[in-house]
């Protein structure tokens, strides 16, 4: 009898201890997007990373080593929308950062909204006239709001407006973004609220941004930065007022010629400033402090500005990521204290990658170059005019897509014939690799082909009539710095690190895609999938 009682006591004690070890439902989901972060930055600069930033996520969390975007174009707007909606542009409608609107016949911006007014700026200031109204599907943050009867909060922050607005979704309590110039503070719009909260007003009044107008030198000895190219080279833009794009940069003395506080964007201090604001947001909004799961979206934009300005192989990019690693460590230590280790779930990914500066590749015997859209358009229009009598039939060219003027065609057959002739011309034009017509994309089966990426980025109402693909490492961009947007691996492969409540530790080389993040988070939270989600749950990451 004594043995049975002892056995039952030990069994109950074991069950109790096991129950205590099991974390409850996550209190806070933190989605981190690093703008323009290539996957290889995790490995390329790893010797310079601390144990508490990226390496902590890898060591204690789950890493996807073969993670890709499954559509083009790979731009910031579509990237952020795809991460949080669980689908591609063909469904969520954010087909680019800017696109040509065939109805109003002008360019539109992915988050511009003339029906709202800014908060923190003059009401008619375009910087504040922003909302997610052009995004056509819900995000997992929206579904969490619905699931909790709007008791779970959503807050989005970024340097870029689209980096804050699209992830936060349609039902967010707030999205905040940075306005530079002479202001140097965070703003929002009345889409979300009537006035800025006190904690935002207090932060803006503290002049934190001014403290970052200082010298930018390398975080570690520049001689140890052997994973990037020489500091002084011909592939970088730099800043106005400084002859050479080389360290150090005195931002205070350069500020006036570079948009005052806007100079912080293409420096790691933009990330520092954003993290300062993010921590204030988590405290000010009391995120992760009750039984209803909150969602906090954080997009580091300065990495993209630095990449565009200096290029993939620059010392400036390397230093930015060495410093970002410390930002991640700082963020996680803060979350451990504020929310509690085991009480939050965090994922880190990117919105796209980037290509090396094409001139750098050319100088090293790798095929690459530059494509002049205006020259192609001029040649195409001359061809259509002289051979087919079609005048002014090209209405616009945007995002490697050609928009035809529908008023020029009397029948659908004429419209299709024009598409095919444009395609035929493009396939003979230098440095164009592939071309697809609207007719083909709407009616063909492209499963398992390169055109599948174009199809997933193709929205029937918002996309053009002929899409073309440039040869590898060809871009339409300036001769210095670099960009992104293609369906090639340098633009599509991204990191995905997941950590915290409900997440296993480990890694996988299985191929997954950006739209898989939102369904996975929905499964973790036990909520309905976003209404347009096409991705799948990454089951091997979930406990």
From TrEMBL:
InterPro entries: Alkaline_phosphatase_core_sf, Alkaline_phosphatase_prok, Phosphodiest/P_Trfase. Substrate binds at residues 97, 160-162. The keyword Signal applies. Residues 1-19 form the signal peptide. GO terms for molecular function: alkaline phosphatase activity; metal ion binding. It comes from the Bacteria. Keywords: Metal-binding, Phosphoprotein, Signal. NCBIfam families: alk_phos_PafA (NF042991). This is Alkaline phosphatase family protein. It comes from Psychroflexus aurantiacus.
